[in-house]
Write a structure and sequence with these properties.
The complex is a heterodimer of chains A (about 120) and B (about 425).
Chain A (H helix, E strand, L loop, with lengths): L1 E7 L2 H12 L3 E5 L2 H10 L4 E6 L8 H7 L4 E3 L9 H9 L4 E5 L3 H19 L1
Parallel strand pairs in A: 1-2, 1-3, 3-5, 4-5
Chain B lengths: L1 H20 L3 E2 L2 H11 L5 H25 L4 E2 H14 L12 H33 L13 H7 L2 H11 L1 H20 L5 H20 L14 H9 L1 H16 L3 E2 L2 H8 L3 H26 L2 E2 L5 H8 L3 H28 L2 H32 L3 H15 L9 H18 L5
Parallel strand pairs in B: 1-4, 2-3
Helix pairs in contact in B: 1-4, 1-5, 1-11, 2-3, 2-13, 3-4, 4-5, 6-16, 7-8, 7-9, 7-16, 8-9, 11-14, 11-15, 12-13, 13-14, 13-15, 13-16, 14-15, 16-17, 16-18, 17-18
The chains are: A alpha/beta (about 120), B mainly alpha (about 425).
C-alpha cells in the first residue's frame, strides 16, 4: 500500500484523482501540510502532494522545511506545464514531495501517479 | 501625480530588491522556501537565481502584468516578483552589512538601483501602454471595468464555499442560504454595501463551524515548531519591516499598488469597501501559510501577514497610512509566535484557511472568465463570446500556459488587439 498525503489548494480534487488512478494500491488523505510532510519524514507516509497558485510556494514550503529541498520536486509552475520525463526521473531518484499549481491538477496528478505506480510495481 | 507615482514605486522597488538581496524579506513563498539552501551553503547563487527566475517570471508576466494593465494600479505580484528576481540575481551575504565584503556591498547597491529603475519603469510602461491603447480605434482597456462586477459580487460566496469544502455540501448549502438572506436583509434595510453584509454573514457561519469543531484532530505533536533563532532574525530586522509596512500602506492608500487581483479590480472601480474586505479575507486565508513560512526560514514576507494594505485603504490620507502601515507590519512581525501558538491549539483553523484559499481561487477563475466574456461581448457582440470561450479552452488544452485567474484580462487584450487589426484591414468597424 502506498500512503499519500495531500494538502493545499484543491486538495479534495487531488485526493479523488489519486484514489481513482491508484485504486486499491493507494491510501490517500487530506491533511494539514505540516502534518503531511512530517509523516513522510517519519516514514508513516510515502509521498506528499501539494498544490498552490505557483507550484513551489504554498505547495512545497512546509515540505521543503521539513524534508529538505533535495526531497522535494516542483512538478509545474505558472505557465510551465508538467513534463512526464522530469517527473519519472524525480520519482526514480527518490523525491518524496511533489508541488504543482492548482491549474495543473488534471495534468500533473496522472503523470506523478503513473511514475509512482511504475516505481512501486518495479520494486515488488 | 505621475511623478509622485513613479517616485513611490521607485522607492518601493529599491526597498523590495534590497531586502530580497539581503535575505531579510521575500515575496514569493517558493523563493522563501529555498532561501535556507542558499544561506546555509547547500546551493550556489547562480542556481538559486535561475530557480527564482524560473518560478517567478511566468507569474510576473502572466498574472502581475495583465491585472495591472487592467487598471493602471500595479498588482503587488508585478512589483515584488520582479524585486525577488533582482535581489536574487545580485551577490549578497546574510550577516550584518557592516561585516559584508565588497562584493556583497556592490550587490546591495546594484539591487537598490535596479529595483528603483524597475519600480519606476513599471509605472511608465503601464501609463504609456494605456495612453497608446486609448488612441486606437477600439480602446479595449475601457472594457476592463466589466471584470469588476463578477469579482466584486462573488466575494460574499467565499465563506459559504469554504464551509462546503470543509464540512460538506449540506452545510455549504445552508451557509449559502444564510449569506443570501443576509444580503437581502441588508438591502431591504437599505444598508450601504449589502454584499459586504452578506460576506460578514457568511464569515460568521464559517467561524461558528470552526469554533464548534474546536480542537478537531489533536495533533500528537505541535504543528508549528518555533525556532528562537529564526524569531531573532526577524526581530533584528524590525526597523526595515516597519519601513516596508509604511511604504506598502502608503502606496495602497494612494491607489498605486494593490495586494491582490480582487482588491485591485474593486479599488479601480471605486469600491473601496469591497477592496478592504478582499484584503482582509486574503490576509486571513494566507495567515497560517505566511506564518509557517516565516518561522521556518527566518525570512519575512513582502506582504507581512497581509494587513498593511488593509490599513492603507482604511486610512484617510497618506501620512496616517504610512504610520498605520509601519505599526501593523511591526505588530505582525512581533506577533508571529502568538499566531503560531494559536494554530498549535486549534489546528483545524489551518484547514479552514486552506478552504478559504481554494474558494477564493476558484471564484476568481470563474469571475475572470465571465467578466472577460462580458467585456469582449460588449466590445464585439457575438464575436467576443466566441473568442473568449474558445481561448479559455484552447488554454486548457495547451496545459494552461496562461494562469486561469488571469484569463479575463488576457482575453480582453487579445480580443482588443484582434479587433483593432480587423478595423485596420477594414473587416470590422
Amino acid at each position: 500500500m502506498i500512503k499519500i498525503n495531500v494538502s493545499g489548494l484543491a486538495a479534495k480534487e487531488i485526493v479523488y484523482k489519486v484514489a481513482e488512478l491508484g485504486g486499491d494500491q493507494v491510501d490517500v488523505r487530506v491533511v494539514a501540510d505540516i502534518v503531511g510532510a512530517r509523516e513522510v519524514a517519519q516514514g508513516k507516509a510515502d509521498y506528499y502532494f501539494g498544490a498552490c497558485a505557483t507550484g513551489g510556494g504554498g505547495a512545497l514550503s512546509m515540505a521543503i522545511a521539513i524534508l529538505g529541498y533535495a526531497n522535494c520536486f516542483t512538478v509545474s509552475t505558472a505557465g510551465k506545464p508538467p513534463k512526464e520525463e522530469e517527473i519519472r526521473e524525480a520519482v526514480v531518484s527518490g523525491k518524496k514531495a511533489f508541488g504543482f499549481t492548482s491549474d495543473h491538477v488534471d495534468s500533473a496528478v496522472p503523470l506523478i501517479m503513473k511514475a509512482i505506480l511504475a516505481q512501486h510495481n518495479h520494486e515488488n | 501625480m505621475l511623478w509622485t507615482k513613479i517616485t513611490i514605486m521607485a522607492i518601493a522597488g529599491a526597498l523590495g530588491a534590497a531586502l530580497a538581496n539581503r535575505g531579510i524579506v521575500l515575496f514569493h513563498d517558493a523563493v522563501r522556501a529555498i532561501m535556507p539552501e542558499l544561506m546555509e551553503g547547500r546551493m550556489r547563487r547562480r542556481e538559486f537565481a535561475s530557480l527564482v527566475f524560473g518560478t517567478s517570471f511566468g507569474l510576473l508576466i502572466g498574472f502581475g502584468i495583465p491585472f495591472s494593465l487592467a487598471s493602471t494600479i500595479v498588482l503587488s505580484h508585478g512589483l515584488w516578483l520582479g524585486t525577488d528576481i533582482i535581489g536574487a540575481w545580485f551577490p549578497g551575504s546574510y550577516g550584518r552589512i557592516k561585516d559584508a565584503d565588497l562584493k556583497s556591498r556592490l550587490g546591495l547597491i546594484g539591487s537598490i538601483l535596479s529595483g528603483a529603475l524597475f519600480g519606476g519603469l513599471l509605472v511608465v510602461a503601464f501609463e504609456t501602454v494605456t495612453m497608446l491603447v486609448a488612441r486606437l480605434p477600439v480602446n479595449f482597456f475601457s472594457y476592463m471595468g466589466d471584470l469588476s462586477g463578477p469579482i466584486i459580487f462573488t466575494l460574499a460566496a467565499i465563506p459559504a464555499l469554504a464551509v462546503a469544502y470543509q464540512y460538506g455540501v449540506k452545510h455549504g448549502v445552508i451557509a449559502f442560504l444564510i449569506t443570501l438572506l443576509g444580503r437581502q436583509l441588508a438591502s431591504g434595510m437599505r444598508l450601504a454595501e449589502p454584499d459586504a453584509w452578506a460576506f460578514l454573514a457568511g464569515m460568521l457561519v464559517l467561524t461558528v463551524h470552526a469554533i464548534q469543531e474546536g480542537r478537531c484532530e489533536v495533533a500528537p505533536e505541535e504543528s508549528f515548531v518555533v525556532s528562537a533563532e529564526q524569531i531573532k532574525r526577524v526581530r533584528r530586522h524590525l526597523p526595515w519591516i516597519a519601513v516596508l509596512g509604511a511604504v506598502y500602506a502608503l502606496a495602497s492608500n494612494q491607489g498605486i499598488l494593490m495586494e491582490g487581483p480582487q482588491s485591485l479590480i474593486a479599488l479601480a472601480q471605486g469600491d473601496r469597501i469591497g477592496a478592504i474586505n478582499y484584503t482582509v479575507v486574503r490576509a486571513l486565508s494566507f495567515l497560517p501559510l505566511r506564518t509557517m513560512s516565516i518561522l521556518a526560514t527566518g525570512v519575512f514576507t513582502m506582504d507581512g501577514l497581509g494587513f498593511a494594505p488593509t490599513l492603507g485603504l482604511v486610512s484617510p490620507n497618506a501620512v496616517v497610512a504610512g504610520i498605520a502601515g509601519a505599526t501593523v507590519m511591526s505588530i505582525e512581525a512581533l506577533g508571529l509566535v502568538y499566531i503560531a501558538k494559536f494554530f498549535n491549539r486549534f489546528p483545524c483553523m489551518l484547514k479552514a484557511a486552506n478552504s478559504i484559499r481554494t474558494a477564493m481561487t476558484k471564484l476568481l477563475e470563474i469571475a475572470s472568465l465571465v467578466g472577460g466574456m462580458l467585456a469582449a461581448h460588449r466590445m464585439a457582440p457575438g464575436f467576443g463570446f466566441f473568442a473568449v470561450a474558445g481561448l479559455y479552452l484552447l488554454n486548457e488544452s495547451a496545459g494552461t500556459p496562461v494562469v486561469r485567474a488571469a484569463i479575463g484580462p488576457v482575453a480582453i487584450i487579445l480580443v482588443g488587439i484582434t479587433l483593432n487589426l480587423l478595423v485596420l484591414i477594414q473587416l470590422a468597424t
